[in-house]
Amino acid sequence: MSVSGESRGPGQQMRQKAEEMEQAAERAQDPQERERLKQKARELREQLERRGNAGGDDIGPM
């Protein structure tokens, strides 16, 4: 049995998670929750950039 997303590399999974957080932020009614989700998405994208600059795994342009 296969788990969804298991065949993707860590970079792709992080990119997907950041996108999901941004979408959730757009739907959030509470301004604090919206900002928290946006911040988490930014942090994930920054991690991706650092990994990419350090020769990380399958990180490509977003």
Rounded mean pLDDT is 81
User: Low-confidence parts lasting 5 or more residues at pLDDT below 50?
Assistant: none
Q: Tell me about the biggest sheet?
A: none
**Share in helix:** 55-70%
**How many beta-strand segments?**
0
The coarse silhouette is elongated
Structure description:
This protein has 62 residues and is mostly helical. It contains 2 helices and no strands. α1 (10-27) packs antiparallel against α2 (31-53). The protein is elongated. The N and C termini lie far apart (30 Å).
What is the compact description of this entry?
The chain has 62 residues and is mainly alpha-helical.
List the helices and strands and how they pair.
Elements: H1 10-27, H2 31-53
Helix pairs in contact: 1-2
What key phrases describe this protein's structure?
single chain, 62 residues, mainly alpha, 66% helix, elongated
